[in-house]
Design a protein that fits this description.
Order of helices and strands: EEEEEEEEEEE
Number of strands: 11
Strand content: over 45%
Low-confidence stretches: none
Structural class: mainly beta
Largest sheet: 7 strands, mixed
Mean pLDDT: 94
Distance between the termini: 37 Å
Radius of gyration: 13 Å
Shape: globular
Number of helices: 0
Helix content: under 10%
């Protein structure tokens, strides 16, 4: 199982970015998927997740109302739409898929919010 995250970059405060995570080796629609982030010197933080059975989503308190997780099962891809970005959103963002055997992680994509 491999996850490839992309879409990070430099954006000004108040701007938007959409991250993508393409999954290979397992059917996306069977499992929960999520996004985490980790800034230098800080602990990894859960950002958003989407359940595989019913699609229910959950968000971290710091991103509620600004970020949206979605999935395209036909493309085996998970997205994270990030709006109203703040400097404190600067971090490496990781996607993950949770199978009954183990969780798999992508390599991370850097998001920098700065003017």
């Amino acid at each position: 199982v491999q996850l490839q995250a992309s879409g990070g970059g430099l954006v000004q405060p108040g701007g938007s970015l959409r991250l993508s995570c393409t999954v290979a080796g397992v059917a996306l629609d069977d499992y929960a998927v999520g996004w985490f982030r980790q800034a230098p010197g800080k602990e990894r933080e859960g950002v958003a997740c989407s359940r595989g059975d019913n699609g229910v989503t959950h968000y971290g308190d710091s991103v509620k109302g600004r970020f949206t997780i979605s999935r395209d099962n036909a493309k085996n891809t998970v997205y994270l739409q990030m709006n109203s970005l703040k400097p404190e959103d600067t971090s490496v963002y990781y996607c993950t898929i949770n199978t009954p055997y183990r969780a798999y992680w992508g390599q991370g994509t850097l998001v920098t919010v700065s003017s």
